[in-house]
Amino acid sequence: MNGIIKEVILENFMSYRYARIPLKGGVNLIVGPNGSGKSTILLAISVALGQTYTERGRRLSDLIRRGENFARVTVVINNSPLNGKRPLPWFRSDEIYFSRYIRGDGQYWHEVNGKVVPKVQAQSYLKKIGLDPDNMLIIMHQNMVEEFIYLSPQDKLKLVEEAVGLGQYRLKIVQSMKELELAVSEEKKALEMLEKADQTMKYWEEMYEKWKRKKALEEKLDYLRRELSWIKVLERELKVKEIERRIDELNRNVENTKASIQELMKGESEAQEKIEEIEDQITSDLPLKEGLARLRREWLQYSSLLAERKVEEFRLEILQDELSRLIADLKRAKRKLDEEISRASEMGERISSERSEEEVEEELRKVELAIASIGKVPSKVKEAYEKYREIYRQLRERAEQAIENRNKLSIELEKRRKIWKSRVEEVLGEISFLYKQLLPKLGGTGELKLVHMDNLEEAGLEIYSDFTGLGLTPLDPYRHSGGERSVTVMCFFLALQGYIKSPFRAVDEFDVHMDPRNRDLIFQLIFEMAEGEGMDRDLGGQYLIITPAPPSKVPEGINVIIVQKVRGLSATPGVM
């Protein structure tokens, strides 16, 4: 039979100096009195295959026979080809030797066909043929039946999950729960940080709005000041133009006055010539009275012209004085205009405005009051606002991402719960079917029930049985007798073993608390399962059963190995 154990070799292992125990396909019974070294054979198989259970709570060096420095245990696996294919095609030999060396200094190692290999590699070979040494239902050590009875429904279910290969589903759920817990914590932290940042953000938003209002008002203030400056320039320009206009007007008046004086002086000259002419006529032949009359008229004309010229000359003097003053005023006005233009230019380009200086000054005062009403604004508020806005954006994105992650993980967790529940219910349904087939053969009935499957932590397995006809009751160390408990658990274990595909199974002293009848019935079930009989599944394989004595009836073909201890050494003197 492929993949089964053909032989176990013990060297300096516990009570064995050297022993070779041949095993066959089907059932192998190892019998002998207590303390003879029966269980040591199964322990040696476990150690050779690298079972983790055997390494807990003890030092491997303690397994070396007293007085020796090293021990070796070897399991020989049948690798003969079946239908042209070997169980482990990497090896061309018909037999594969899995060995474990143990030294007194605490060092140990694995060998496969004489080659040192890591433990994980040796176990990977074994798992390829379905022989998982860490599966407690493949190798069932002493006291497992009693220990199982006292497990809680939750621990029973966990044990079954690990045994039938469903542990990964629970691990994935636990992993999802941890991830979800971290995601919830991250979400809470992110939301708390976002809430704190929100308060800070509101402050900086308020400061930023104040800063923008103040900035707009300050820009308005600068504009008004520039407008006022250019209005003052305009006023200066108008004043200069007015002075220039008045100067032009005075220049015209001066010229006109000068022309008038010239005309008057010409008239005066003509009047003097006429006076002289009349005086000459009077002295010659003009009658005196007529001459005096004419002379008086001319003198009056002359006096009038002279007086008028004097007035015009005085007026000219006044006009020239005023012109000189206006020219001086013009120079001063142009100088002030240049100053105003310089100040205004420093404030910006020229602004055309039709408003008066008073109107602009009134609005300017209002803007200054509005700026003062805003109050103090922190320096570099824009940079601070933009910085905190970016921080707030990142925190908001982080919170949104945390919420999204939590939702995704919640969905994934629920998905994994459903898959786990579905697979557990499916597998337990098959195991329950086998369990219900086995119990009637021992005069009982039973069923398996899954409880609290909607809660991973509370989910459990309850095993029911009845041997009295009074109704099914859950497995309980205080309700069932020792024999009933052992029979119930063994039927459950056999149902589990029937579900698990493996070329090798071992049970160590399951029959401690059983009466002879139930013991024989359990043996009969094991014999049938080893032959693949009596059930709807093709089971078969190799069984190793350790018991103080064989059952009352041993079918033909059963390999019975007798173990004895002589002078402190265990040995197998005979094989039946």
Structural class: alpha/beta
Portion in beta strands:
15-25%
Give the termini distance in whole angstroms.
20 Å
CATH topology of the largest domain: Rossmann fold
Structural overview:
This protein is an alpha/beta fold and 576 residues long. It folds into 2 domains: 5-150 and 477-575, Rossmann fold (3-Layer(aba) Sandwich); 178-374, Helix Hairpins (Orthogonal Bundle). Helices cover 57% and strands 16% of the residues. The chain is built from 10 helices and 15 strands. It has helices at residues 38-49, 119-128, 144-149, 153-163, 167-284, 288-347, 357-374, 381-438, 482-499, 516-531; strands at 5-13, 16-22, 26-31, 70-78, 95-103, 108-112, 115-117, 139-140, 445-451, 460-466, 473-474, 504-508, 542-547, 559-566, 569-575. The strands form 3 sheets. A 6-stranded antiparallel sheet has the order 2-1-4-5-6-7. It has a 6-stranded mixed sheet with strand order 8-12-13-3-14-15. β5 (95-103) and β6 (108-112) form a beta hairpin.
